């Protein structure tokens, strides 16, 4: 808010002021006085917000975190299990305001000096964030040196401040740090005592519109236009739209915006829901020939206490709310001729977890789980002495629903649907077989379209089946002493405990409850020993070793198919981007020979492509050489290269080059390894190296 020396003098002046309205306000306000003397230290986080997938260097999410001492920072998971702070937005925004003499525009009249307490308050309030939210990924056009235009991805972060201003940061993707900040614009919202913020994104006739929904602690809610300059295909509102204007003293706690399709109006629409006290305010917005139509109302009778958390499943529009007494409400929107109505049902967590207090809820990306933060509730009318916070997971879908959604998915990426695949994995681990209906449906999908997504899904199922049939080791070295438990309440109760490749060093405790059977009671089938019974009868099942070998053979066959499909893609890139194949470092001849080495592999597309490439190579081989002994590295294995002197180099699964360095990347599930891009690599090789794992769709670290 000013030079350090001047700020220190002002703080001392205000603290010792004879006017109690100044001294007491200053001493009790933790924004002015973060150290607080005898007050508890300001540790922890006020709020956090996840960006969409695809924003960091690994194609994953960024995390915007607001600390208790009002510092806004952005973090990224650049290495496995390691979070790094990329930028401190509070510091950058403060520097911008200092350079502009704490004026938002040049037309602003100069304010008072820092020694004036009202000016001291104003400078703090214009830099104290209340909430921040990410927009969806949008496309901007960048002009290159040769006057060509290329599309560059960007994302916006809106930051709401105490003084009702909103700073909209624009970041170029992938976000790497301060150098990725494109611009920062400040909007005056005009809302008194702002409390919450959310992006309004609406698509109409292939036109994307955007705005910012702002809620007040006094009750009003409105949408503000956001002018996105140089953003391809984006539009905004001409003027603010007031969704609720009554100053009824019901603070807006949370706002969610859900894109839906109106079955009667035959057009897309936008549902805005806001938690206000113990009620849910909803507003349906749709664009027609007459303009923007707004329908709004409140849903009452949901909770006897104020709503402490609200989340929404954007797949089907279902809204979940919870109050601190352990009650969760599920609200399902049902369209009518004019607007919509809500059907709601009560989910009593006390029937599942006992007496609990709830502090927050969140739904997983594909709607498979509801995560609930709980502490112990009252026992015999007494509050617990200590609070133990736990995250409980409640299943919202059955195994059949999750499998059907995976088979009909438009995303076609297993990593982005990891909550659905977790339900499927749990079922296979528990039953130790792949259900017949899923196997048949998957085989039909593979025969009809042949997409590699369904082959990866098949590989996932086979790997989990193989894992379920292995004997559990007598001692698991990495697991802590307590056991993990997943509890399913259904017609066929059971529990399966599993080790996941993604879990390292820590263990998560999760309780899963199927909502459709909450009234049936809880039966926990303790199967901590996963060892399988040995089949000893003469006419019984085949020996387990033969079954495991059969599954292993199927896994290798599917992996080989996925490898060949990716090799075809790599060879296609080589053919398109190289005039003389000597210019590429990819072992083209080795990949071609590997593809054609199997007599049983009859792919006309691959044969034609290889024929064109070999014609271009003109009998040249351009082999790779070992960096230690300069011997030729033959291409005999897709996973590693071994020279004649026995030096072994792992192969990159994205380009099939040998990784002849001490540093390389691995996929999240440790399926495969990949090399780092080098400055000498052409753009098309760098693009190949940005791809996910060809076996599990996981990002590469």
UniProtKB/TrEMBL annotation:
Region (Disordered): 488-541
A GO term, aspect molecular function: histone acetyltransferase activity
Domain DUF5921: 398-475
GO annotation terms (biological process): transcription initiation at RNA polymerase III promoter
Pfam family, one: DUF5921
Gene Ontology cellular component annotations, sorted alphabetically: transcription factor TFIIIC complex
Boundaries of every Transcription factor IIIC putative zinc-finger domain copy: 618-668
Positions of the Transcription factor IIIC 90kDa subunit N-terminal domain: 6-397
Record-given protein name: TF3C4 factor
Lineage of the species this protein comes from: Eukaryota, Metazoa, Chordata, Craniata, Vertebrata
